Amino acid sequence: MNEQHISLAERAAEAAPVALVLLDMTGAIIFANLRAETLFGQSSHRLLGKTLQEAGPVGRAASELAQRALTENRSVYGHDLPVGMEGRALRLSVDATPDDAGVCVCLRPWPESGGGVHSEIAANAAAGFGMMLSHELKNPMAGARGAAQLIAQGEDEESRELAVLIINELDRARRIAERWSRVGDIGPPRQGQVNLHALVREAVRSARASAAPDVVWLEYFDPSLPDAWADRDLVSQAVLNLLINAGEAASQGGGRVKVYTRYRQPLPGGPAPDARLEIAIEDDGPGVEDALRDAIFNPFVTGKPAGEGLGLALVSRVADLLNGGVEFDTRPGRTVFHFYLPIERKDG
């Protein structure tokens, strides 16, 4: 690379809208742009020659990812990383990309404006009302199941089929309620291979039964997708919650819900970079209100007049328990929720 190209590269790095730090193969800082100086609270002159561990709280928050990128020789992404600073709440998104001479570390405040992201705080908060949720659900579910059993004994075939569907859904909800009573102090139970196509089709059937009849449901599945490694009941409930929300949003305009299963290529700074399978649910409704976007996964936050604000909190908690992630993109006429899961575990 000639001197002119080096000069242009340096100018581009200095003008970048994110903090950029270059490390050599020993982990020492050899370059820091203006945004990095501001974020670290130190001049470039003071940062040069230090390791990230020696560069203050921001550097310490990013050091582990940078070291992994160096030792594993691959790009490593992290988000929602806490920075140990007194009197100031700061969390970071960090991308570390190695090359033959060292590693480039990109740092940004998390979450960035406009993003709807999976929140670890929301997931933990959701666990706090698990016991209350379980207690409140058990009695009405038992009554509804008894009524469905009576309907299932009737002569009308269509009613019997719907009754069986109701009974199956109530039984699954009861199992989830029992486990949510302890969800704050257990890991994800009963994990195994999960065929996402079969799971999504069942969830679509249930969501369709509760949606407006003029909503059109479309499925776009990748037939080569492997099984996920997850808890089927929990994933089914999370996907059903997303589908019901999408159906309600689409029904405001007599619109469409599109459901995708596909491989996922994580973007720098995205949630759960090791979760490579995606279920995406898109609707053409009005979109998420601006005032709700940053807190949409928190318990009791809702834009529905009669909503309780528990559905997306549960989705967030399930994603956290299963080492997956969830995020969304929204604008009027198009909202997409992306639910990520790890691929089936290969023992040995």
Secondary structure layout:
Blueprint (H helix, E strand, L loop, with lengths): L2 H13 L3 E6 L4 E4 L1 H7 L3 H4 L8 H17 L3 E7 L8 E9 L2 E8 L10 H9 L1 H23 L4 H24 L11 E3 L1 H15 L5 E6 L6 E3 L1 H20 L4 E8 L13 E7 L27 H11 L3 E7 L2 E8 L7
Parallel strand pairs: 7-9
Antiparallel strand pairs: 1-2, 1-5, 3-4, 4-5, 6-8, 9-10, 10-12, 11-12
Supply the CATH architecture of the largest domain.
2-Layer Sandwich
CATH topology of the largest domain: Heat Shock Protein 90
Give the mean pLDDT.
Answer: 79
Biggest sheet: strands side by side, in what order?
2-1-5-4-3
CATH class of the largest domain: Alpha Beta
- Principal-axis shape: elongated
In percent terms, what proportion of residues is strand? Answer: 15-25%
What level of helicity do the residues show?
Answer: 40-55%
Order of helices and strands: HEEHHHEEEHHHEHEEHEEHEE
> What's the tally of helices?
10
**Biggest sheet features:** 5 strands, antiparallel
According to CATH, the homologous superfamily of the largest domain is Histidine kinase-like ATPase, C-terminal domain
> Given the helix and strand composition, which structural class is it?
alpha+beta
N- to C-terminal distance: 45 Å
C-alpha Rg, in Å? 24 Å
| Overall tally of structural domains | 2
Note down, in words, how this protein is organized.
- This protein has 348 residues and is of the alpha+beta class.
- The protein has two domains: 107 residues, PAS domain (Beta-Lactamase); 222 residues, Histidine kinase-like ATPase, C-terminal domain (Heat Shock Protein 90, 2-Layer Sandwich).
- It is 41% helix and 22% strand.
- It is built from ten helices and twelve strands.
- The strands form three sheets. It has a five-stranded antiparallel beta sheet with strand order 2-1-5-4-3. Strands 7-9-10-12-11 form a five-stranded mixed beta sheet, covered by helices on one side. Strands 6-8 form a two-stranded antiparallel ribbon.
- A hairpin with a 4-residue loop joins strand 1 and strand 2.
- Helix 5 crosses helix 10, helix 6 runs antiparallel to helix 7 and helix 9 runs antiparallel to helix 10.
- It is elongated.
